[in-house]
Specification:
The chain has eight helices and twelve strands. The protein has helices spanning about 5-25, 30-50, 95-110, 130-140, 160-170, 225-235, 255-265, 285-290; strands at about 85-95, 110-115, 120-130, 145-150, 150-155, 185, 200-210, 215-220, 235-240, 245-255, 270-275, 280-285. A five-stranded mixed beta sheet has the order 2-5-4-7-6. Strands 9-12-11 form a three-stranded mixed beta sheet.
């Protein structure tokens, strides 16, 4: 590696360090996700810059070991996982995340829900791999995770999903579940579609919903108005705290209405207090305080 390349590598490493420090001190999910994208882009530049002077043997899933030589800018790890999905071929080039997940849904039957601020492009070429492994690789490209609950697969940054699970555990510790219609029986963080595998990027939930199936397809709809639309469907009264606001983009078909409501609340970091037939919607942080 010549001196000019070494200097360029040093500058890029400084940029990565700066982004990592910023990521460590911010709690805003959108900002953390944007910083993660910048980190990935900078690391890609590093990999491109050093590809002619760095020799790396990359491990694949089910590899027994990893050998790394002259590790200037690339981190390599080996994994051993078990997948059960139908074997597929997948070729994506500069595809949006929505387009990529739509391809997976064709094989899996899952309906994906993604926050509108999570936007990224996917370029990947896979042949003869299970669809759940393909999904895992797509998520890993941008450090995203998925929580699968029946037919609904909610995609979000991994750290956001982990924080949500921590909050749920804190709320449910020593009290009754908030939603009477939703009996939680969740697997431990890390379980994937196969019962005996562990994957940071997958969570699977086993919940029971009792609402009638509905279809919903909205884009940038007012959050409060969307929440109030469930009052007539569910036959209850709703109070929405004044600070609750935002927009909703979601498309689901034949999903129980109480599951749809739960997904919308999760996407917007909201919780519910239930008193008889009155449902009060407020930020999840305030649910914890109570």
């Amino acid at each position: 590696m010549d001196n000019n390349t070494k200097e360029a590598v040093a500058i890029l490493n400084e940029k990565v360090g700066f982004f990592l420090k910023e990521q460590a001190v911010t709690s805003d999910p959108a900002q953390r996700f944007e910083l993660k994208k910048r980190i990935d882009e900078t690391q890609s530049e590093l990999a491109e810059l050093t590809k002619n002077s760095t020799s790396v043997e990359v491990a694949v899933d089910n590899a027994k070991g990893v050998r790394v030589a002259n590790l200037d800018a690339v981190a390599v790890a080996g994994f051993s996982r078990y997948y059960v999905g139908k074997v597929i071929d997948l070729s994506l080039r500069e595809a949006t995340l929505d387009e990529s997940l739509h391809r997976i849904s064709e094989f899996s039957g899952l309906q994906f829900v993604v926050p509108p601020w999570v936007n990224c492009t996917i370029t990947i070429e896979l042949k003869g791999v299970p669809w759940d492994q393909a999904l895992s690789q797509i998520l890993r490209l941008h450090y995203l995770g998925v929580e699968i609950d029946g037919q609904v697969a909610r995609v979000a940054p991994v750290e956001m999903l982990r924080e949500e699970r921590r909050i749920r555990s804190e709320i449910l510790r020593g009290c009754e579940p908030l939603m009477a219609s939703c009996a939680n029986s969740e697997t431990e963080p890390g379980s994937t579609l196969a019962d005996n595998s562990r994957d940071l990027f997958f969570w699977r939930c086993q919940r029971t919903y009792v609402g009638e199936p509905i279809n919903i397809s909205i884009e940038n709809a007012d959050l409060v108005e969307t929440l109030r639309s469930f009052v007539e469907i569910g036959g209850f009264n709703m109070i929405v705290q004044a600070r609750v606001n935002g927009a909703v983009t979601i498309e689901l078909k034949r999903i129980p209405w109480d599951q749809v409501l739960a997904v919308i609340l999760q996407m917007n970091h909201l919780g519910a207090e239930i008193d008889g037939r009155i449902v009060r919607i407020l930020p999840i942080a305030e649910v914890i305080k109570r």
